[in-house]
């Protein structure tokens, strides 16, 4: 028979989990706030949201994009708050790594030491007993503990649900929102009902965690704060007075970490981006980056109204080019290449090997749509210009001046994104000039945009007019790997 | 080829509409920025009122091609409100 006590590893993982789960909840709210609407269908069609956490209304007579729909939440509920999606994402993905490692440690030790018995329902009778326990709680009484166990039946089932169902559920629905995983394993996303269904379910998981924490803390107070915190700090019930003090100190420490991390993040966003990004991108590099798209949605699944992010260049030069169907537009490809080249739109269209792909588009803000994109594979251009041995990255430049054209995005200057040369050689990396069988619409990047199916949308530069091969990007912009990386602290490689 | 297709945002103008554009050009004494000529062929009209932040609703960018064969930049355009050249209601 196992003694279902509170060994030191249970106590440590419990308190570490408290830190990570609360960081995950707050940073999750930050991510939700950037597109505060939830849908069931992949197309995220405006007006079809089943829940909205914003009062903003969008114009019908003017192009708006999803940056205009973004909300700024208080730091009290979001991490770091104040419309900082990039930094919120860093905290979310950093915390999820810590949370998963803590959870794995917990589960492995649970299985190795026999402590899993505390969660195993040995008899079906536990379910009616748990129901009876619930009624007892609702009548403001305390039910009896199960014989020889630290919990009553309802607690046992609830903890088992949180550890073995809710936590994996959050990991799996979170993974289903990764463009790299969606692209490589499209059936996996369908298992959840699609990308937006996974996002909605992930939200329900967040709500359940918040409810669990509230009820958990309430019941600890009801059962005896000193006794239970003593078990979770000292492993016995002998030091209740000290446990009350220490438990409050631990909770205060967790609050202090949140406060300090929030203040530091808002004051030193670049340092935070670099520090957390180093951890997060290191993990993505071997886990998600190698994934290549295998998706091919049917024509029937195309979104009737593909959502938009980013606004077209307002320069007269661009408008005149567009009015003439981009006859004067040129794509310059230069930098560290053997054969710098310039292409007209017609020349690009006449290159052999036109490629079409019907894919799920993932915006960093959380919405999605399905579109069909046709164009020239980027690797064709790479082969034509012949990168020099020192070339490692492509700097893809847009005609959009973000400070001028996109008031909803803080920052100035020409939009650009850096991608790895290896990513440019992916079979699904595409320079698209058509969408859904017609010419690429202006709001989607005409005359030419990038498609990278294992990345989120902002990496897929629109209104492109130049591609530069470089060996290093530290001297371009702020040196972070793109306009959004420079200005709103996003991460350079965004497979999730 | 693709460049000869009509863009989804563009409108093909009738002869009457093109004539109204030409009258507008004459009225405003519009000349080509590339060569100074005032002789243009009127092309399609791109609706810019919805897509571009700086444009008023109802504005179009009408494609103009300078008819001077020596012009170094023959493709240009003029922004006009729909009431100036389209047959509105």
Can you put this structure into words, describing what you see?
Chain A: Keywords: Cell membrane, Membrane, Transmembrane, Transmembrane helix. Chain A: InterPro entries: Cyt_b561_bac/Ni-Hgenase, Di-haem_cyt_TM, OxRdtase_Mopterin-bd_dom, OxRdtase_Mopterin-bd_sf. Chain A: It is found in: Cell membrane. Chain A: It is a multi-pass membrane protein. By secondary structure, chain A is of the alpha+beta class. Chain A folds into two domains: about 10-35 and about 70-285, Transmembrane di-heme cytochromes, Chain C (Fumarate Reductase Cytochrome B subunit), CATH 1.20.950; about 300-490, Oxidoreductase, molybdopterin-binding domain (Sulfite Oxidase, Chain A, domain 2, Alpha-Beta Complex). Chain A is built from 15 helices and twelve strands. Chain A has helices at about 10-35, 85-115, 125-140, 155-175, 180-185, 185-190, 195-235, 240-265, 270-285, 315-325, 345-350, 380-385, 400-405, 420-425, 485-490, and strands spanning about 35-40, 50, 330-335, 340-345, 355-360, 370-375, 395-400, 415-420, 430-435, 440, 450, 465-470. Chain A has a five-stranded mixed sheet with strand order 4-3-12-7-8. In chain A, strands 5, 6, 9, 10 and 11 form a five-stranded antiparallel sheet that branches. In chain A, a hairpin with a 2-residue loop joins strand 9 (about 430-435) and strand 10 (about 440). The radius of gyration of chain A is 26 Å and the shape is elongated. The relative contact order of chain A is 0.12. Chain B is of the alpha+beta class. Chain B has one domain (about 1-85). Chain B contains two helices and four strands. Chain B has helices at about 15-25, 80-85; strands spanning about 10, 40-45, 60-65, 75-80. A four-stranded antiparallel sheet of chain B has the order 1-2-3-4. In chain B, strand 3 and strand 4 form a beta hairpin. Chains A and B meet through helix 10, helix 11 and strand 10 of A and strand 2, strand 3 and strand 4 of B.
């Amino acid at each position: 028979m196992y003694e279902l006590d509170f060994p030191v590893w249970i106590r440590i993982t419990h308190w570490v989990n408290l830190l990570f789960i609360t960081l995950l909840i707050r940073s999750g709210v930050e991510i939700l706030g950037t597109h505060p609407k939830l849908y069931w269908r992949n197309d995220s069609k405006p007006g079809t949201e089943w829940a909205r956490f914003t009062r903003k209304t969008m114009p019908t007579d003017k192009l708006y994009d999803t940056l205009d729909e973004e909300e700024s939440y208080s730091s009290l509920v979001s991490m770091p708050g104040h419309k900082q999606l990039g930094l919120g994402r860093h905290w979310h993905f950093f915390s999820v790594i810590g949370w998963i490692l803590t959870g794995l440690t917990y589960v492995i030790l649970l299985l190795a030491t026999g402590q899993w018995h505390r969660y195993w329902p040995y008899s079906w009778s536990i379910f009616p007993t748990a129901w009876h326990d619930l009624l007892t709680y609702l009548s403001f009484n305390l039910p009896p503990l199960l014989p020889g166990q630290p919990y009553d039946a309802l607690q046992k089932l609830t903890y088992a649900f949180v550890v073995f169902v809710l936590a994996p559920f959050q990991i799996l629905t979170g993974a289903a929102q990764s463009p790299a995983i969606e692209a490589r394993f499209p059936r996996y996303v369908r298992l959840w009902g699609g990308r937006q269904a996974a996002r909605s379910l992930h939200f329900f998981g967040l709500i359940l965690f918040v409810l669990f924490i509230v009820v958990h803390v309430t019941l600890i107070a009801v059962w005896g704060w000193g006794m239970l915190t003593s078990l979770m700090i000292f492993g016995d019930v002998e030091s209740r007075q000290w446990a009350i003090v220490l438990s409050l100190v631990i909770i205060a420490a967790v609050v202090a970490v949140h406060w300090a991390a929030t203040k530091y993040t808002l004051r030193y966003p670049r340092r935070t981006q670099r520090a957390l990004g180093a951890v997060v991108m290191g993990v993505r590099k071997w886990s998600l980056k190698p994934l290549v798209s295998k998706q091919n949605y049917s024509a029937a699944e195309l979104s009737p109204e593909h959502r938009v992010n980013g606004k077209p260049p307002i320069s007269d030069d661009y408008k005149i080019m567009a009015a003439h169907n981009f006859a004067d537009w040129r794509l310059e490809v230069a930098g560290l290449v053997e054969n710098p080249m310039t292409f007209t739109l017609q020349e690009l269209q006449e290159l052999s090997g036109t490629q079409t792909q019907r894919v799920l588009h993932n915006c960093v803000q959380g919405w999605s749509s399905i579109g069909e994109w046709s164009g020239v594979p980027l690797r064709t251009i790479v082969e034509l210009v012949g990168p020099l041995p020192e070339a490692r990255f492509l700097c893809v430049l847009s005609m959009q001046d973000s400070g001028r054209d996109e008031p909803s995005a803080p920052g100035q200057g020409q939009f650009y994104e850096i991608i790895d040369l290896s990513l440019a050689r992916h079979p699904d990396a595409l320079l698209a000039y058509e969408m859904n069988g017609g010419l690429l619409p202006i709001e989607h990047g005409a005359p030419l945009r990038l498609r990278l199916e294992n990345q989120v949308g902002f990496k897929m530069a629109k209104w492109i007019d130049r591609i530069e091969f470089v060996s290093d990007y530290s001297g371009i912009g702020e040196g972070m790997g793109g306009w959004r990386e420079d200005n709103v602290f996003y991460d350079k490689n965004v497979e999730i | 080829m693709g460049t000869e297709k009509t863009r989804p945002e563009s409108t093909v103008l009738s002869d009457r509409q093109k004539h109204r554009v030409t009258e507008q050009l004459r009225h405003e004494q519009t000349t080509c920025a590339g060569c100074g000529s005032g002789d243009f062929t009127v092309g399609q009209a791109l609706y810019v009122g919805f897509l571009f932040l700086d444009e008023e609703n109802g504005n179009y960018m009408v494609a103009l091609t300078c008819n001077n064969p020596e012009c170094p930049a023959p493709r240009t355009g003029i922004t006009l409100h729909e009431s100036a050249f389209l047959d509105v209601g």
